[in-house]
Amino acid sequence: MKTLQTWYIYSPVTGINKIKKIKLSKDEIGENVLHEIEGRVLEESSTSLDQIENLIIQSHSISDNKKVTFAPFHKIKQLCLLCNWENLGSNLIGGLEILEALYILNNNYLTSIEIGFFKNQKSLKKLVINNTKLLLQPAMLKGAPNLKELDLRRNQLECVPLELFTDVPDMEKLVLAHNNITNLPDKIFYDLPFLKEVDLSYNHFQEWNEEAFSYVNSLLHLNINNNNLGQLAPSSFRKLNSLVSLHLDNNNLENLEKESFAGLRRLNHLSINNNKLKTVDASSFNNLKFLKFLLLENNEISCIAQKLFNNLGKVEVCHLEKNNISVLERNSFIGFSHLTTLHLNNMNLERFEADWCIGLHSLTELNLNDNKLTQLPSNAFHAIPKLAKLHLHGNLIESIDTRAFDNIYRLKYLDLSNNQLKQSPGNEIDNLYTVESLNLSKNHILTLDKNSLAAFRGVIDLNLSRNNIEIIHPDAFMANEKLRNLNLSYNFIKTIVSWVYSVNLADLNLSFNQLSNIEDVLVNFTNLKSIEIEGNYIKKIDLDSIIASSILFMKFDEDNFKTEDVIEIKKILEKKQSA
């Protein structure tokens, strides 16, 4: 639940006698605040001016700043200027001595803030200036020595003057995102010993100037996403020895050199998604002993260098999807002793070498979706004993070796949908009894034989939709005593035979088959609560069988039924739901 604050809106045109009010959350006080105001009905305010704490000044005139007076407002803590003023004069907010947050938003005319504008603003902690044409100048922030957060995004800034931050030594967070900055001066942050977070995303940096961050020993989070960085020199971030997260997504990096990240001994999160990485030196990550999240998705990596992950024993999540790795070679992941989640989807992966997964003994989730695997060989995952979720959707798998899942005894979720399987994984596989959710949809399965699903004795949710199933053996589900949710939609099933006696379903989807009646289903499934039967040839259902059944919800083709039958079926179901 968002906490709402009462804000008061003051227009210089209508004057202080016609102030209105609105409720806004903290998230709504930002770039889109104008939209939030214009889209709502504003209330008249009867609050005394000297009690107002949150004030919005809204003006479309360039010269209205001469009409504004803050004299009646003694308790303003948050001020938002939605004005088209060309400059902010030095005396404009002089009387607001307990101001804590100032928002200057969506002013396409603003080019300057006079020196002295922030005079005596010792309580100011947060300053947001967005969507202006402001030219920054040294000493502009003088008078706000306790400023903690400065947000200067979307101001068309091309440079940051060297002495801009001299007068705000307590600043902890700086946002310069969505500007046109190409470089930062050496030691630009020298006067900011407590700086913890810097956002430089969406600018035009082509090279990284490590000297800009000299003496910034407290920085924890650095975002350089969406720039034009082409390379990182060795030790590019060596001065940032406290850094915890580094974001380099959407740049033009083609390779990672040896010791690119030297000095980042506390780094926890490294993201280099959506670059042009082709090669990663085997020593690139050697110094990242505390890294937990490594994100390298959507690059052009074609192979994993031997020993690349040797020193990444604390990494828990690794994303390598959308690269171009066709073969997982032996010992590729040695070093990932604490890895729990590995994404290798969308990589054009064709095969595994033996022992490719050595080192992944802590892995619980493996995503291999949307690759080009045609088979699962013997011992495919033998070194991943804790594997609980396995995603294999969208491959070309035709066959699964009976020993493919050897040494896996904790698998709960298995997705084999959208492959080329003509039958379910064989009953010779002993250790898939732990699987609770099995997806075999969008394959080429024609029949369900007596032992088709015997390997999955513990399955609860089973999806067999969009196959070519015509025949289901009476004992097809005999081994699946725990089965509760079964999806057989989009097949070619014509009749429901005695297999209904062997399962205790709660949810059954038979949509888009070739059924003409379902009375046997309604009578024999004593715990069935929901059934879907649209897209069949069913035109009538015995009403007494619905009453006698446990069904509470039914989706059916109402157009195929008589109007009076539809009404009666709905009445019966509504009565049962409310009982």
UniProtKB/TrEMBL annotation:
Under the heading PROSITE patterns, the entry gives: LRR
> What InterPro entries does the database record attribute to this sequence?
Leu-rich_rpt, Leu-rich_rpt_typical-subtyp, LRR_5, LRR_dom_sf, LRR_TM_domain-containing
User: What Gene3D superfamilies does this protein map onto?
Assistant: Ribonuclease Inhibitor
Please provide the record's keywords in A-Z order.
Answer: Leucine-rich repeat, Repeat, Signal
A GO cellular component term found in this entry reads:
plasma membrane
* SMART domains in the cross-refs: LRR_BAC, LRR_TYP
What is the name attached to this protein's record?
Leucine-rich repeat protein
Q: In which organism is this protein found?
A: Pyrocoelia pectoralis
Taxonomic lineage is: Eukaryota, Metazoa, Ecdysozoa, Arthropoda, Hexapoda
